[in-house]
Structure formats: C-alpha cells, structure tokens
Amino acid sequence: MSLRTLDLKIIRFFKKIAMPVSRLALFVVFFWFGILKVLDMSPASQVVQNLFNETMPIMEFSTFFLIFGLFECLIGILFLIPGAERGVIPMLFLHMITTAGPLFLLTGETWTGPLVPTLEGQYIIKNLVIVATAIGIAAHLRPMSK
Fold it and tell me: For residue 5, what are the contacts with CB-CB under 8 A and spacing of at least 6?
C-alpha cells in the first residue's frame, strides 16, 4: 500500500467519524459540566456566583445555578440529535457569550497579568475550541429548503 493510499484511507475514515465524534464531544462536555451544576458539585460554582452577583442579582443564585446547569445538559443532549443543530447552535453561542463574561468582568479571578490567564481563565478560553467544533458542525448542515 502506498503512502498516498494510506493517507486517503485515513482522511476518508476521519471524514466519516468527524460529525459523530464532534457531537459526542460536545454532549460529554455540556452534559457533564451541567450535571455537576445540577448536583451542586461544580468546581466553577464560585466564579459563576461572582459573575452572577456582578450582573444578575434578580433571583436566588441557587435557582439560577440549577437552571444554568439544566440549560447546559439540554445543549449537550440536543447535540446528539441530528436535525437539532439549528436550534442548539444559537443556544451554544448564547452560552459562550455569557460564560466569557468573567474574562472581562472578573479580571482579578481570570488573569494573573496581561495575557496570562489563571486556571479559571484558561477554562474559559478553551471555549474557543467548543465554538470551533460547533462551527464545524454548522458548516456541514444541508441548506434549508425554500
């Protein structure tokens, strides 16, 4: 088998599994992190509470945190359902915008210096990979019929 033939087989294999693996990865991240919030076991709870206190003290934090966790679980589940992309991708982008808030509003918790994030800051910045994965899924959607 030539190197080119092997290369083509590997590319074909990855094309075949790219969407299912991307969907499963998004499900795992969102459902897992969401269920940790629902069970009040999330290591991110303090950062979320601090952001909440800065931006939306209109309800009890415990109620918000539960709803936020359920929202994350829903995003994860919807990524497993083919055909749900047009609904879940806007939900994901809304989530990404809100979760980026600490980078700008809680700078003491997310940065140790210019361009040097804390562990919490790194946790948020990695969301760029989630956005890129969602864009990859969206790029493979069939156009809507007229």
Answer: none
